[in-house]
């Protein structure tokens, strides 16, 4: 059995992996705003490439963190006082993952189908999915934070005499 | 260059699909969305779903309530009063559960498999 004081507990792999995709995908959504603002400028091409890069990296690492979250679920659900919040966290994370998945697919189509109208439609689709996915991801993140900071999910709470420290 | 890009995209997409299936919300668990919280006590019912991976059971009581129970190490599991293992729980089987309402969840104290 893993020691409650250990930093190598199954439920902590999720905490270790989840912040990277949140940061990367949120940044992609912000850069999408900048891209629209600079659409006619020379830098637009670089910004568009950055959006794709962040989206692809974020999408892959998102599912890694989702997987670690699924592994943490059966442990944390037994510790907390209101499992409904954890279920909602899992549900909304899953929804956002699929929206980012849609953005990812549209982005790939955009790279291979070099038709002007398709390019524009895919571009709009990618950006809308990015914003929608980021909004839902923020809500899922809020629920995840609630599980940790309100219910101490996955948290080792030291005893009164701080045994083990 | 375009060939490498194609291979890279395909690899990324395959990896994502694999990770997506690993992280599937269903993921081997038979999740029932609408469950009930009941007062502490002992209830008889049917094991509507049994999830061996998560050591979780859903019990449908005689009055139609569905109790979601995550068995813990300290949950006393018996079969007709004799010690039992989780594998003895069968979907559709009769069970008697003793639960304690803690916060917004049910803590299973004892599960007795009836035959």
Q: Largest sheet of chain B, order of strands side by side?
A: 3-2-1-6-7-4-5
- List low-confidence stretches of chain A: none
Overall geometry of chain B comes to: elongated
CATH class of the domain at 41-114 in chain B: Mainly Beta
Biggest β-sheet strands, sense, barrel of chain B: 7 strands, mixed
Number of helices of chain B: 1
Most extensive contact: A-B, 28 and 24 residues
**Rounded average pLDDT of chain B:** 84
The assigned structural class of chain B equals: alpha+beta
CATH architectural designation of the domain at 41-114 in chain B: Beta Barrel
Multimeric status of the protein: heterodimer
Number of strands of chain A: 0
> End-to-end span of chain A in angstroms?
19 Å
The unreliable regions of chain B are none
How many helices of chain A does DSSP assign? Answer: 4
Q: Spell out the helices and strands of chain A N to C.
A: HHHH
Write structural notes for this entry.
The complex is a heterodimer of chains A (165) and B (115). With 165 residues, chain A is an all-alpha fold. Chain A has one domain (10-149). Chain A is 76% helix and 0% strand. In chain A, helix 2 (44-76) packs antiparallel against helix 3 (83-112). The longest helix of chain A is centred in the C-terminal third of the chain and has 34 residues, at 116-149. In chain A, 34% of the residues are buried. Chain B has a domain at 41-114: Beta Barrel (OB fold (Dihydrolipoamide Acetyltransferase, E2P)). Chain B has one helix and seven strands; from the N terminus they run H-E-E-E-E-E-E-E. Chain B has one helix at 2-22; strands at 41-51, 56-61, 66-70, 76-79, 82-83, 94-102, 105-114. Chain B has a seven-stranded mixed beta sheet with strand order 3-2-1-6-7-4-5, with no helix packed on it. The relative contact order of chain B is 0.19. Helices cover 18% and strands 41% of the residues of chain B. Classes of the chains: A mainly alpha (165), B alpha+beta (115). Chain A binds chain B through residues 56, 59-60, 63-64, 66-67, 69-70, 73-74, 77-78, 80-84, 90-91, 94, 97, 101, 104-105, 108, 111-112, and chain B through 5-6, 9, 12-13, 15-16, 19-20, 22-23, 25, 27, 53-56, 68, 70, 72, 102-105.
